[in-house]
Amino acid sequence: MKKFELYWRELNIGSIVETNWDMRSSGDISFKFDYLAELSENQHLADYIKFSIEDSILLGEGVEDDDLISAQAEEEKKFLDLIVDTATDWYLINENGEKK
Prior knowledge:
four-stranded antiparallel beta sheet, alpha+beta, 4 strands, 3 helices, 30% strand, globular
């Protein structure tokens, strides 16, 4: 297992522990902040992370409701500035301290 620290700009979002299962690379994030419950200094970023957590839960539960999927896709558009990262705002620091 590999461990990374996930950053957005200088903000440490959390730790990612990569696990390899079912022939795919996947991992779990341990957040430094309770994005589902607490207010944040950067509310737009917190809202995006909250949306991502909720979306992952729905995917994990195998939700196939077309209206819900469509609503999630529409909601995701609010965060395109964070998703389409051309300025390398998002990055990982590996166990050796190397920035990826």
